[in-house]
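User: Can you fold this complex?
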Amino acid sequence: MLVLRALSKRQLSNVKNSAACYQARKLTAQTNAKTAEPKSDLTKDFQTSKLPAALPKKPKREPFAKNLFIGEFDYNFLTYPEPQHVDRYNEFEELFSPIRAYLESLNPEEFEDGIPPHVLQKLREFKIFGARISEDYQGINLLDSEYIKVLEAAGKVPTLGIFLLKQGVPAINLFNKYGTVEQKFKYLPKIATGQVIPTIAVTEKNSGPAAKHFMTTASLTLDDKQWVLDGEKTFVANGLVADVFIVFAHAFQGGTMEKRPETISAFIVDKNTKGVQVVPDSETVGLKGYTTGKLIMKNVHIPSENILGEVGNGAQQLVENFSENRHYIGAIMIAILKDLLNKLTEDNIHRKHFNCMFYETESAQYVFTKLMGAIYAMESVLYLTTSLQDMYENPDVILEMAVTEKFCVQECLNLLQESLWLAGPKATLLIHPYERILRDVYSLTYSEISLIDTNIYSGLLGVQNCGKAYAEGIKKARNPLLFPVDMIKKHFFDTNHLNLHLEEYLHPSLQECADFCDRCILKLQECTQEILIRHGTEVGKKHMDMQRLSDMVSQIYAYVAVVGRASRSYCIGNRNSDAEIKLCMVLAYRMQQRVFQLAEDIKNSEFSNGDHLSRELSKIHFEQKKYIFENPLQRNY
Amino acid sequence: MFSKIITHSFRFLNRESLEFRLVSKYNTRYISCSAIQFSHKQKEKGYEDDVKNQTENEITNAKEINEPVVNDDTSKEIQKHINKNQQLRIIDRPRFVGKKIIKSEKEDKQKEDDTEWYQYDEEHEKEPEEKSDEEKDKQMSKYTQDIITNSLVKAKNKNKEAFLECIRMYERSSGKKRERVAFVYGAMKYMKEFGVHKDLSVYKKLIEVFPKETMVPTNYFQTLFMHYPREQYCCISLLEQMEDNGVIPDPETETILLNIFGQNGIPLEKFWKMMYWMPKFRNLNPWPVPKPLPNDPLELAKLAMIKISSVDVESSISVHQTEDIEDSIDKTWVVSAMAPKQKELLLKHDKNTPIYVEGPFKIYVATESVDYFILRAEPLKNRKFPEMNTDDVDKIPNPYLDTHTTEVILPPSVHEQFDGTFFAVCATGMSTKDSLLSWIRCLQKDNPILGDIPIIFTLRNVVSEKKNLIDGGIKSEESRKLASGLENVNESVTDKEC
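Assistant: Here's the predicted assembly.
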């Protein structure tokens, strides 16, 4: 109904006006950018084919997603960003188009037994291994938003996508941030030219999500010239092909294994050092060709300068690794879903359903729209997050990253389940690609990330922010008898409303959708406060509420990205941008409904929504360690 | 006396208050109650006087005609019965006469009646067996007494078969109608002795001693004034015994009871109450035990250890044979329970502070007790507890982003109590000091740190071993320590000796 109403109201005459407003805002942004001098051309001589320098970064802004929890909205984020200068954009496209063409021509079946050497060779020629390495070290220094495009293109073969991701992100981030100049000069050029593949080794047999309880140890030899490493690491990405490992271990400086100072540090270990052994993990269901391995180190001596950062820096590095490399996986998810959508279309176009074509039935149309919508939303979110990273100086986007990852993975899993019935029995046949897609997605989601941890983590980030902002008010609300006056004020004079007037920043066709956002953000803010009032600092233990908050904020963030993108597209007249507007309306409605439902769950409190009883039931279950209920036909006498 | 009777009749009347009001209005309480009471006295007496003359038919006839017809006071046939049967004659007479008769004729018996009514009350409320036993035995005829003495008291094989044989004997006997109440009471006493006190089928056989249909009330007033109260009380105490032993009756029992007492009988009420509650209680035990309970002490010990270690869901049970341990003297088994969390606590334990092996303590598995021992350390002094003001919402911790773990004070686990930190529990086959030493050695395989911690054995009287030691004299270092442990003198057994 709503969508229809919006459509009927739509007047194209409005387009020009608002497009003009939009252009005006863009112009001011660009003039701001121009005032800052572009980077000096010092590094230009190093290489012949060099992209134009990126735009200088804008000053740091307040975090966007975190502030949604306190009802603050930064309108800057509603304008879908253009992170590069137009010259750079064009040149990158030129550079990228042969790469894309090559990556799309690859046949996934070739990758069953590992990445074929000719592919690696081709990638070296394209300099993809140096994508995130500065030009000083023979890389091509792509922006994050550009690198995502590469990953997305490679993600058509998920094995290759994840291989590139693991090669290009975690280890190189650590080198870039913590490596000394010597270390950079020693390793980065080799990595950029593809001679050496780096990886990081974190997980151990019994370590949890925080990954701090390590049993691997590193001790200095008496002459202080060498570190001696001992221990085992599991699930080392690219373990079998990697040549340089960044190993996290306890740097021993006295104390015992049980009582020791917390001195986790990162060490660079070459594969051919004596005592290093890599054993393949058992075969995975999907992602054939991508290998993880077990790294076994027995009395490994490495020179003392091979420590990355300082002793005890490791914990910080791990936290950064945990929080800042999350969203890249979304690119692969998008690629997989696009692949699925194309294949489903191909298969269903000639299918009949009673006396009409299958694609004309409403049920099929609904699922196809949903698939389109999901991919659209995932793209919007992912490119918004990476653009923010590129545009602002040292941005606080860890919540955006977590939310992006969560949104992409969750949508991908849901959509896979919902759309696979369109393939019919073909979904189970080995000759069709569906089965491989299914396996790949499952391996990708379950081996790489824990969705629940992401949810709780992102919920906590928001709640922390809200707690800091409203500490005083919440303290009063938690102790109504100590602050009676405030309570009375709150009850009788508090008017909870939020009017952001988003429509002023959007194309008029999207006016209907703009209102959704106010209500959703208001709900999010109220729910967060309510949870804080109920549980105080114990909120971290309320995992279900944290997950709900995380769901809510991810829906709102996706909504902002989608609306901004559709508005921009329509204003600049991209192909099919009118369809984008329609899709945007559908998505906005669904997201709003989802947020309302989650808010309802939270408002109902744990005693109505089943959380409390679930806790009790699960306790009984674990006491008995098996399914506890009797057969329905069981007689007691 | 009077009030006793009234309260007694009230107990059954107040179920239906309307009826009660009706009765009290016409002031019939005294007469009716006395009549019933008297008739029962008569019945019992009559049994002894002429066993052979009175057939079952006569009794049923009398019952059938009993009240409705008699009150009409018209039929001549009934007049005959009245002449025959004193019981009916009394009821038949006008009320004031009835009163008189009871007082005059039975004046000397009145005291006895009093006590008996009183006993019925007691019997129903509490101590159904003890108080009434002697009385029952007195009332029991020689014949029934013989059956019980011969087949139950003097039985050689005290098993189910023998018990059923006794019931069969009684049912075969010609005088079976007479002393069924006494017989059932007598038989109930011996059930435990024969090991059939938890056997539903035996209870059903016992209930079936009562005749079918004879005692089903046929009219309103019979129901109101508790038809055949002695039989009903007897059946109730039988059901009570079932309840005490946790025997849940089955639908067949209901049919039997219905056939005997009719649907308004008090035993039926008791039965329905039992069927309401007993199945509900049946599965409430969080540590279910197999039925019947195993006799093997090892199995019992395992059950006991599972029970006591269930505070921590992670804990696991392991069974060791002391034969596998070098230098062990007692060859027996050890059931040990330990959780991973307890292992961690042991690792963190200060090596200079001793830990104690204490016991034996008792734990019950259903009706059996099992001795167990614990490995305990004194609670940490000055232990810090996590302090957090839940109102400080600007300091919400985010464990995913914490770079340090040691700053956080964790709340104590379930194993760290105010009276000590508990590392492990065990039960051994012999509960001797040596078997406990073997236990510590078994634990040491998984927890090498036990080798570095001084362990003190503080055991309470283990009688058998103490005797042995005194007899054998104190010879070795080892046995000296054992003795010292038994005398409650703490002495440390250090690393090497373990």
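Chain A is about 55% helix and 10% strand. The first strand of chain A starts at residue 198 and ends at 201.
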